Amino acid sequence: MKTNKFDEIVFDDQDLVDLIMRGQDVLAIGPIVVDNSISITPPSSIDVDWPALEHPTNDTIEPSEFHYSNQQHWHMPQEYQDLDIAAYILGLCKTDAEIQRVGQELLLFQERDLFNLLKYLHYLVNVLKQNQIIWGVGRGSSVASYVLYLLEVHRIDSMYYDLDPTEFLR
After folding, report:
1. Span 42-67, average pLDDT
2. Contacts of 93 (CB under 8 A, 6+ apart)
């Protein structure tokens, strides 16, 4: 057991098993934080260049700073980093109504500095397709985004169902 920077006791899987085997009522401890992180080696059948993390977990910085730092360093090929994602997505539109909707959503993404996220999602979907990995049809508020539909992150046509894009990006 160890304590994280929020003074929560963090158990690993073995700690919990030991407590249960000794007859300890683990539910009486209170909220349980479990560190079940493992090292994963990607299967050799998946063709992805898995880079090392540039910013390992560091207990000396705040979580918001850590997340922001990582969001500035998406691990994806240079061709995706250099992609004009707005032009790419607008190029997928077939009608004026689609262009209007995509333009509205892209402004919302831009206001939140999320263009790198869109580039990464485009890369991720392409990797999933290339390796014939199946992902879900979509869930939650993400299906309100027509941009994500065009990038094939989900398969729900939000324009057909007249879903409000602000439901996704509030």
Report:
1. 62
2. 99, 102, 150
